[in-house]
Design goal:
By secondary structure, the protein is mainly beta. The protein is built from two helices and seven strands. The chain starts with a strand and ends with a strand.
Length: 129
């Protein structure tokens, strides 16, 4: 399993389990995205003057919203061409854990979880402690 965040030409940020699609010459021509979701990052408050100053290390609270990408598709693995992907990076641990728990495991509890969640509806999750 390779969890990645992809930025598309459309401006969307996706997180998915990504597998390479190769041709006969072993050149990557695209990717298969398993359970892709759109990821939106937003601030939950108005930044203060202190937060906006260049010398400040304090930041505003952030939240993440995830919702299915191509929710009407029957396919479990959606192909996408390499020319639609601007960049692909490894997500920060908190986002990867959220994706694995709520999307890949369908919100089912594991031994460490206190609460069952689902991504049937958009969800806000704080990234700060």
């Amino acid at each position: 399993m390779t969890i990645k965040v992809l930025m598309l030409k459309s401006g969307e940020d996706l997180i998915a389990d990504v597998q390479e699609m190769v041709n006969g010459d072993q050149q990557v021509i695209g990717y298969f995205l398993t359970k892709p979701v759109v990821v939106k990052l937003k601030t939950t408050g108005v930044p203060t003057e202190e937060e906006l100053s260049a010398s400040s290390h304090k930041t505003s609270d952030l939240s993440v919203t995830m919702y299915p990408w191509q929710p009407l598709a029957r396919e479990k693995s959606i192909p996408i061409s390499t020319d639609w992907v601007i960049s692909m990076v490894t997500p920060v641990e908190q986002i990867q854990e959220l994706y694995e728990k709520d999307v890949l495991n369908n919100g089912q509890e594991t031994e460490d979880d206190d609460q069952v969640t689902s991504l049937d509806d958009p969800r806000d999750v704080g990234l700060t402690d």
